[in-house]
Amino acid sequence: MHVDEMRASETHAEGLLLARPRLVEADAPSGLLPLGLNSRRDAYLYVPDGYSHRHPAPLVLMLHGAGGDGLNALNIFQPYADALGLILLAPDSRRQTWDVLYGNFGPDVAFIDQALQVTFSRYAVDGAQIGIEGFSDGASYALSLGLTNGTLFGDIIAFSPGFMAPGPAHGRPRIYISHGTGDDVLAIERTSRVIVPRLQKAGYDVTYEEFVGPHTVPPVIAQTALRSFLGNRHG
After folding, report:
1. Backbone angles phi and psi of 169, in degrees to 5
2. Which band of pLDDT confidence, cut at 50, 70 and 90, is reported for residue 7?
3. Could you count the other beta carbons within 10 Å of the beta carbon of residue 122?
4. Could you tell me the CATH number of the domain that includes residue 101?
């Protein structure tokens, strides 16, 4: 392993992402695009109609729940992406769920970093408007990875998280959390009603929405989260 690869491996073990947006001087395809990074567990990009490299777009990294995949994760925001000019990146976890849920950051951070590097090399992304979103285990991972990489992610969107296990925090991302009062998978009393006060006590700007319903993301909640994210564009 080369020295640079060793340093990147150490950085990924700390939960840190190295990829950053860059200048892009040509257009690239729109629509649903597999990145082709892995034959079994890949990453998927949705690029909205009307994308132009002349107008850097907001981007959301979308993280699926346990047992899911990137294509499933896209379903939450994809119906709104064309109208909002929103690029969506949805990787598959390396295993059944995300690495930190097994105990430590590592292979998923490395794969997400690779997917972001490829995306940033092909598409013009607004560096002031990058969010990380997740549902269920993906929400727990979004909080963990997002707080660790708050200088990259200006916003964290966590739908029905179970916990958070960040590395040393960087930056001060805004946070949107929702949870159903009838959730029988990740009970709200032991999860979001514990997580939200901890984040508020730590000084984070948190928007919290409870809704009457089970372990899901109602369309109205997805739309509210996107309005919050896009409304922070110039914040």
Report:
1. -75, 145
2. confident
3. 18
4. 3.40.50.1820
User: Residue 59: which of 133, 112, 110, 111 has the closest Cα?
Assistant: 133
Distances (CA, A) of 72 to 68, 75, 87, 126, 212: 6, 6, 16, 25, 23
Nearest to 215 by CA among 177, 190, 183, 181: 183
Looking at the structure of the chain, the number of domains it has is 1
Average pLDDT of the residues in 174-200: 98
Q: pLDDT tens digits, residue range 33-43? A: 999 999 999 99
Beta bridge partners of 176: 157, 207
Q: Report the pLDDT value the prediction gives residue 10, as an integer from 0 to 100.
A: 87
In this structure, is residue 44 part of a structural domain? yes
The model's confidence at residue 8, banded by pLDDT at 50, 70 and 90, is confident
Name the residue range of residue 128's domain. Answer: 3-20+30-231
Q: How far apart are CA 46 and CA 31, in angstroms?
A: 5
C-alpha 133/C-alpha 76 separation (Å) is 10
Largest Cα–Cα distance of the chain, in whole Å?
52
Q: What share of the chain is helix, strand, coil (3-state, %, to 5)?
A: 35, 20, 45
Gap between the Cα atoms of 49 and 227, Å rounded: 20
